[in-house]
Amino acid sequence: MLRLISRALGFWKRADSSASEREQHQNLLEGDTILKTVQGVVTKFCNNYGFIDELIYFSGDVVTGGVLLKVGQRVTAIVEEDTISHELKAIKVDPFCGSYHGHGPSDSCTGVSFGCLTCRMDNADHEAYFSLDVVCKGFEPYPGDRVQVEFCTQPDTRSRKAISVKPLRHKHVHEACITSLRGRSGVIDDSVFFTLDSLKLPTGYTPQISDIINVVAVESNQSCYTWRAISMIPVKKS
């Protein structure tokens, strides 16, 4: 009799456990969040919060080991996705230093940082200086330009070295019109800033108001303008 009661209690316990597991699974399916593990790069960190890959939000208190993260640092994160809004939030962030391709540890961390040029590139709580030798071909950096910088960090000294610099975004504008000129600066289609101090032009060509031109522009903070022309070719002169 005791054996039968014990078996019955064991069965009920297993049944309750299975029911609980099914309920938890159903809650995950019907609930507002989904959990997943991802690897990425910290693209912003300030005031005790940040973003991974510019999409995943995290707060400083979920970073393991009390580590103060830096922009460009690679991390592994447990991410919570809201099934309704699809917003991503990390509930645990583990920093690590390793190769991008997962072939084991390396002697340096490689990362990507985003910023706006002044006389140097400022980003959050650090400053990054770079040589023009690492700037991509055809791009001459100018104060205000939005740039993407790939860098390596030596774990022993925590020193950072830029290995490539390129515009964050660029665009081609065909048959645009020079709408204003003032000194060595001007505006194209009332929306794209340019300066002769940093502009590639065909030999012998000087921009004039009403010239029709083809332009390559990069994203840049220039007063009330968000684009800066880096090259200009006349299609029709005024």
Walk me through the structure.
It is a single chain. The chain has a five-stranded mixed β-barrel. A five-stranded antiparallel sheet has the order 8-7-6-9-10, with no helix packed on it. Helix content is 12%, strand content 48%. The chain has 238 residues and is mainly β. A hairpin with a 2-residue loop joins strand 11 and strand 12. The N and C termini lie far apart (106 Å). InterPro entries: S1-like_RNA-bd_dom (IPR025223). This is Cancer/testis antigen 55. Keywords: Cytoplasm. One of its GO terms (cellular component) is cytoplasm.
Helix content: 10-25%
The count of helical stretches stands at: 1
Class computed from helices, strands and strand pairing: mainly beta
Q: Write down how many β-strands occur, each being a DSSP E stretch of 2 or more residues.
A: 15
Span of the ends, CA to CA: 106 Å
What does the radius of gyration come to? Answer: 27 Å
Mean model confidence by pLDDT: 75
- Give a short account of the largest sheet: 5 strands, mixed, barrel
The largest sheet has its strands arranged as 1-2-3-5-4
Give the helices and strands as they follow along the chain: HEEEEEEEEEEEEEEE
Contiguous uncertain segments of 5+ residues: 1-18, 24-31, 98-108, 119-126
Strand content: over 45%
Query: Overall 3D geometry?
Result: elongated
InterPro entries: S1-like_RNA-bd_dom
Domain S1-like RNA binding: 37-75
Protein name: Cancer/testis antigen 55
Keywords: Cytoplasm
